[in-house]
What does this fold into?
Amino acid sequence: MKKGILFLLVTLFTTMVMAQNNQGSKKPEEQIRKYWFVMLIKGPNRNQDSATAAKIQKGHMDNMDRLYNEGKLKVAGPFGDGKDWQGIFIFDCATKEEVETLLKTDPAIAAGRLIYDLRPWYTAPIGSFVPGKPKQAH
It folds into this structure.
C-alpha cells in the first residue's frame, strides 16, 4: 500500500511538473536531472516531553526555512494521516553525501524523532504547486 501511494505521489508530481514547462523550447524530457527524494519516517525516540518536542519541531521548521533559502530544499511537507510516514523533502544537491550532511542538521532527525529513507529521483526542473490548470505552452 505504501509503495502504491508513493508511486502515485511521484507520478502526480512528475506529470504536473512536465505539464507546466516554462523553460523555453526544451522539451521536459530533455531537461530531466537528478534530485533527492527523502521520506521522513517516525523515529525510535519520540518520548520527549511536550516542551522539548515543541522546541525540536521549531528547530525542524527553522532548518527547513534555511535549506529552502539556500536553494537546497525544493519541496517539503507533512502527511496528515498520523501514520509512520511523517513527510517528504526533495533536495537539489550534487551528491547523496551532501544531502545526508544537510539532513543531520535537522533537530528532529538528530533527536531521533524522525528517520529517513533517501533515494535519487529524476524529473525536469520545471513547474509549481499553483492551484488550477497549468498554463498551456504556446
In short: The radius of gyration is 16 Å. The first helix runs from residue 2 to 19. The helical segments are 2-19, 50-69, 96-103, 107-110.
